Amino acid sequence: MKPIQFEQFKKMKNEVTRFMMMYQFALNELETKIEILKEEFQFLHDYNPIEHTKSRVKSLESIMRKISRKGIPFVLDDIKDNIKDIAGLRITCSFIKDIYHIRDMLTTQFDLRVNEEKDYIQNPKPNGYRSLHLLVEVPVVMSDGRESVCVEIQIRTIAMDFWASLEHKIFYKYNQSVPGSLLQELKEASDSANRLDLQMERLHREISVIKETQGEDGAEELTRLLMGNQQFKLPSALLELGREEN
């Protein structure tokens, strides 16, 4: 390899590496913010709406296949402008209302710009797929400047995630037409999952009302602090200070 060819290859390699890293950094930024939310909910609130998260950056091989199908040239700026799901984050919640609560927190409290929102919960896909999709721009500071990186966020309940994961496994790499009877069964399974979501949300709401009316031993709860798996007794001086302020 001639020196000039080597330098060109090295430059291209560095540019592609930087390109892939900025998507990973964008996910790191989002996951850090969400972890902070989870910690806050755990220690300061009675209920944590976030069950778990999962993220991924498409491999370079997967990106190459996609731009080949779409006829996009191998130009990094063109790829960035046209391929919006290179970085993906999935947030799984307990209940449907949590999905919109988390959406609102992400869009109002974080330094994100929402470019697109698709609500497949209010308007499910014909096969029964339900989820809330957001395309957001995440600011990422690199050594040579600031980048706005697109990340696709999917927010769904446990039941929605269960259905979508199994649907993907059933039809993964299945290129033939699917019989209508199977599609109908798949849609019915999605409807069943949705009914379960609605029922569990109703039960959660009713239990919350019962807890409020019955009341709990608040005085005892306020004297204890739970951190991780350890429970600490609050100092009496701190409790006295709280009483004085009241």
Task: Tell me what the structure shows.
The protein has 246 residues and is of the alpha+beta class. It has a domain at 3-158: Beta Polymerase, domain 2. It contains 8 helices and 7 strands, in the order H-E-H-H-E-H-E-E-E-H-H-H-E-E-H. The chain has helices spanning 3-44, 60-70, 76-82, 96-109, 158-171, 180-214, 218-222, 236-245; strands at residues 50-57, 87-93, 113-119, 132-142, 145-157, 224-227, 230-233. The strands form 2 sheets. A 5-stranded mixed β-sheet has the order 1-2-5-4-3. A hairpin with a 2-residue loop joins strand 4 and strand 5 (145-157). The radius of gyration is 24 Å and the shape is flat. The mean pLDDT is 84.
Describe the protein's topology:
Elements: H1 3-44, E1 50-57, H2 60-70, H3 76-82, E2 87-93, H4 96-109, E3 113-119, E4 132-142, E5 145-157, H5 158-171, H6 180-214, H7 218-222, E6 224-227, E7 230-233, H8 236-245
Parallel strand pairs: 2-5
Antiparallel strand pairs: 1-2, 3-4, 4-5, 6-7
GO molecular function: kinase activity
GO biological process, one term: guanosine tetraphosphate biosynthetic process
Coiled coil: 20-47, 186-213
